[in-house]
Amino acid sequence: MLRECFVMVMTHYMELLAVNQPWNLILYMAIPVILAETIAVSELYLLYTRALDGWVRQINRWAGILVGIYFSGITVTLLVTAVGPLSASGGWRGPIDVIAVGFYLLGVVPLGGLALLELGVVARERSPWERMKIHAGLVAVFLVVAHVAMIFGMLDPSLAWAGAMEGMGHGGHN
């Protein structure tokens, strides 16, 4: 009975990263985060130096294009293989689980925006500095969205339903 009190349920976000080690962690976390951090760090350099060209700008540009395309693929894959089936079967583990996965997938908006900006699909008529402001804003939005996903992803999803979970065999407290 004491052992049941300490059973923790993982969010689907955390479970995705934990299974098939180390591949899921690399594919779904390391690659996008390394690219996003490369963009964030190079963005700081570019904003500080006001450099609009050079090798740091090229790294920033290509990382933006690559992460936008890559994360779009991740989003489509997870919508088809996880979100759809979980929604159809009622397999979500509560609101914390939905928030963690939802915010993770919401990362496609700023990352896709970065790729579209770098490819000249959007804001093409804007000045280089106006595009840089948009770029920095998209980086900031991604960092917020990703951190919300990580924070909720690390929570025990049963915390949101602690009262409703009692007696249901889901690790609720007796």
UniProtKB/TrEMBL annotation:
Transmembrane segments: 25-47, 59-86, 98-122, 134-155
Protein name: Permease
Organism: Pararhodospirillum photometricum DSM 122
Keywords: Membrane, Transmembrane, Transmembrane helix
One Pfam family hit: DUF6803
UniProt superkingdom: Bacteria
